[in-house]
Amino acid sequence: MRWQHVPVLMLLLALLVVPGTAQGTKYLYGSPDLSATISGTNEFAPGAETQLAVIISNSGLNTHKIVGSTLITPDDQPNTAKLVSVALKSTDTPFTIKTDPQFLSDIMGGASGTATFDVKVADSAEPGTYVLPLEVTYTYLLDAEEYGSDVLRYNYQKTTKTLPLTVRVTPDLRVEVLDVRSESLNVGTEGYVYLTLKNIGHDTANKAIAKVTRSGASPLIPTDGSAYVGTFEPGETVDVKFKVSVADTAEPQSYPLDVAVTYEDYEGKTVTSRSATIGLPVGGKIAFEVVSPTSVLYLGQKSILEVVYRNTGAATVYNAQARISAVNPFTSSDDTAFLGDLAPGETATARFEMNVDGDGTEKEYGIDSEIRYRDDLDNSKISDTMKVRVALERRQDTIFTNPAFLVVLAAVIIGAGYYIFVYRKKQR
């Protein structure tokens, strides 16, 4: 036998002599070591509503391990945090937690779990750093006692720890509307909106621009919705002016309009404040009506048509002009009449020269008419179409309307006048 074969032979003999056994493992020392961090930013502005994602990490280690054939391996390791639940608190902070405690199940050593909480920052929150306590409750394996070769008793320990989460409230600009005034704001027109704004936040706004924007489907639509403010200090007030149009479909009532300020914040970033919504009263639509009775015109003759218009709207109109649309059997070489300025409730009379075709039908007609005017902002507007009622009749000829009779009558009058003149001259 060669000597190099001896070790192999001894190993084979050992395997034959020692029966197969299972190796058990037991950890003597170890426990969970939990910490919490915020995923994403921990900076929030006053009034913000956000979802705060918190990562709970377990860095606990098992430091002593025993391996033996007579040991029973436990199902759990001492550094595993079992049945983990987390609750975010807001004691003595301007934060409101809207989410109940959450269950995360088990977190093994070297692993982590995430809990998400809905958080609201108070509008009045002062800028600064705050600590939100995160209460973490879990159970871990304290030790495992063996009874004989097949019984293992687990001893678990329940623990609650409070982990600090640092959050920061940033300074911001918040807009408060102290005063609202409107001018010439009527349905279908443009008007002005005057606002007094106050910075009730804690940030000095640089290059601030006040803006008004449409609120949802409101009929108030800004046509000149920006006003430069410049530096806007905390507690400072400014007066701004905007131009707003009102849709034709609106009704005379109050409608919303949103107000915000775009500015450079304390970090030099361009941001926009949260919007404040105001209500603006809108006056009725500018309207007119024909208040004169039905006019009578005669077939085959030229006549003067007089029409009386009334301003039935809620605002004064300026440089109003009435216009008619003459159609067969009417014609006109003068279809426009100047009415001037009309305050609400005032009337004005327009006179149009009308020719009536002799072949027309004797009946009542409706002639279209409209009024062009200027509003308070000097915008040119045209009213809705109105109907001017005209009845056509045929004039009955009499002796007094016969042209021949009128010529003879004129000659008689002239002759009589001449005779009287000569007679009186002779008497002198």
UniProtKB/TrEMBL annotation:
Transmembrane segments: 404-423
Domain CARDB positions: 170-263
InterPro entries recorded: CARDB, Ig-like_fold
Keyword Transmembrane carried by entry: yes
Entry keywords, A to Z: Membrane, Transmembrane, Transmembrane helix
UniProt protein name: S-layer protein
